[in-house]
User: Fold this.
Amino acid sequence: VDRTKYFSLDFIGVAARGSLEDSTKAMYQFIKEMGPTKKGGVIIGTKMRAPYHYAALANGTSSHSLELDDVNNEASLHPGVAIFPAAFAACEMTEKSGRRFIEGVILGYEVMIRLGKALGPKEHYGRGFHPTGTCGTFGATAAASKIFGLNETQMINAFGIAGSQTAGSMEFLAQGAWTKRMHPGWAAHNGIIASLLAKKGFKGPSTIIEGRDGFLHAYSGNADRNIVLGGIGSNFEIMKTSIKPHACCRYKQPPIDGIVKIMRENQLKPEDIEEVKLGILKAGFPIIVTPEELKYNPKSMVDAQFSMPFGAAVAILYGEASLDQYRKKVIQSPEVKEMMKRVRCMEDPELEKVYPKQWPATAEIKTKDGRTFFTRIDYPKGDPENPLSWDELIEKFDRVTSSIYSKARRQKVIEQVRVIEKAGNLKPWTSILLKES
Assistant:
């Protein structure tokens, strides 16, 4: 329950701040044309409301735009940005309580993460799919179905319907396109639709997970169906989920931690650096390292979010890789471009031994005066084994939402999230997530 509230605050923060991105504004324009309403679901960080399924689409899209959302390592996906938009919309629509909201979120995380683990991240990515979009549709459906109060037969049908809505292509990487940002929003949107259709009696295949043409077989060449239900009830996947401190792809987080650690502990300055060697997981290579002509020459924010050389360069020059660094003026900076030339990324077989339960990385920095420094990061900051405290999470929330909410409103959101289980009806509660007049 505490972790659900913890991830709720993180989600609200990144959704609110993500409302300022150009990709999000384009989505808002589309939704306005579809028929906005003063009585629908809250679009976080704005003064807008929209039909509930469109509110879920908007909030899922905005929250994924910054690459600051939560992540589960073993499944290699971002659960919060698919689950929370669906859960909030479902609770607003049916005026359900904070307790039901928590139950729906936990169930959504459980379903989404288990399916991601069963597919196998390498296999799923290898086929060109983005697991946040594909598995997220099932997770959002689980959350919405729980909140709507579907019975067993209805929920089975809802999953069957969801299976024909799972989508998310990794081709966005080729051009720095915005489509990845839409994946969790589309998953949340589809989760609402699948659940409502099932509640009305619409039928879906009951074997959508394990069937011959079902999800596991269609989306992976080496799925392990035993993972789907293995050990269920003995622990909860939401407890194994990480928070991102850096505004970029999860595969970049441990190398950046390693660079910052070496720079700070040895009081190094950017002008001291001769060469940087980074050990990167094999699964991360096609996402943050190759093709080199793109990764060493990012043109857009999306390009930079998925460029390890860029992340390394800003970590050296600025001591961090926050939202301030993932901006056009920094991406075009000659100083950053020059530093990127000193970065080399390599596969390290030693790292593969613990993947995907751990996402380690190594960092080696050689200085111009001949010194060499090395570190291995097994658990980057934000992992369950090295978590952000509540105070650190609140600091992140304040930092990302300061341009959206006043100090008083930020404090109110924090206080209400921490006691959300006491809310008898979330429909009026969500009004605190709107931007103030």
About this structure: The radius of gyration is 21 Å. The mean pLDDT is 97. The chain has 22 helices and eight strands.
